[in-house]
Amino acid sequence: MYNQLAGVLAAPGGAVAAGPTPLGRGLVATQQVTQGATLLSVDWANMLCVTDQPKLGDAFGRRVLGDWQMLHGRLPPLLVRYLVGDEGDWFVRLAAWLLWLRRNAQGPWRLYIDLLPREEEITTLMNYRPEEVGELQSPLLESRAALERSQIAGLHDRLFCTSGGELRALQLAAGLQDTVWAACMVNSRSFSETVEGETVSLMVPCADMANHALAPNASYQFVAPADAFQLQALQDIARGAEACISYGCTHKSNEGLMRDYGFVVPGNLNDRVPFSAGKQGARLLALGGCDDVASQLAARAAGLGAMAQPSISAPRLLEALGLGGEAGGSFDLTAAAAAAMGDSEADAARRRLLATLMSLQPFLRDIPPAGSTASAAAAAAAAAGAAPPLSEAELQRERQSSAALVGQCQQLLAGMPTTVETDEALLAADGGGGERLGARRRQAVATRVEAKRLLRAAEAALQAYAAALR
Length: 470
Ligand SMILES: C[S@@+](CC[C@H](N)C(=O)[O-])C[C@H]1O[C@@H](n2cnc3c(N)ncnc32)[C@H](O)[C@@H]1O
Fold this sequence. Notes:
Helices cover 45% and strands 12% of the residues. The protein contains 17 helices and twelve strands. S-adenosylmethionine (SAM) binds next to β2, α7 and β7.
């Protein structure tokens, strides 16, 4: 089906086709590709394009919509008015267009719709039913899923619902599930580009088969001289290898990725262990009875002297984790993260360690300034080949602190109904395709096991720290 679609909507000579990949269905190189080569080119008249803020200028968006209608047939005037108007935001307008195509399209746009994931295959949070969200084993994700679903229900009732929505004459969505489907498609498959100074949002057939990678080997852009949206190779790509792009979501935690795309990144650098400096932590750290980091900082800013030391020595922690390395314990987090962007499990484990380090930030003391040596004391000690000695009382406090934080990890893990091992066994028995578990349950297990792996990594790091204390 993909080849049929590409034969009509993409320019001849493409070097990729849809196929099975380790990430699910994706784009696979059909030939050896050299760096800089065009992998796929889709003419602007063959994409769905809406201008994000029509009031700031919409000449490009109107031109593309005009060309689209000349090539693919006229759209109902009510829909056209809605697409070029500024009543709905870009997201809602693209969803309306998709819903209309789903009900009415023929030819290549029928193929396009048929190639899109079906409801039962969609794993974005919004598509989880209330009875399924418990599988995520995360109160945060559960409440986020409920919120997403209630927001989309509001949109459905107000706009798309065939019985009472403002656009009911277009007969867009018979039930809430239709609207959820369209919203998930727009969320997870649209591109944003600025063309002729106009920011537009696009659904681009064929190009929207590209999966996301932390270290992408392809990029996308609108190429004005070609009047086309293109995927290009950032490096040589072997025949049969997957071509991946970056979704530009490098700042998103796994919660954000589940919300927008329905997948998680193993070892997501933006995830944090939700350590708390609650009562137990505050007592152990002798921080004057403050219950959380924010109030500690506020109290410190207010000059309350009882704000004693953070609990963990940063240079010692780095050393215990094998992350110090350089003279004076200097550590470049950005460089360490950049060096761990691969697909391997070792890279994912490394990223979990870095995420742990960042989670511990509120508790660290003697943090070395970026790119420089640690504290003067640490620098002197490093020159002498050893960390500065700690008094027995200091050692005692460090041990108590790490024990308290380890306890928090263990408590969080114990509060989840299944273990890493059970989850991994479930995934292994499923064989990769979600055939037995179903797509959403499989993704829920993949998501919760990733949260547990981070907690395990944090627990192990703190235990290594405690063991290295002397
Ligand atoms: C733009 S589409 C990519 C094509 C999609 N795989 C398909 O079969 O239609 C985005 C969706 O692909 C999947 N995806 C993309 N990147 C992924 C990744 N790195 N890991 C797992 N799933 C991914 C997610 O389901 C996401 O919502």
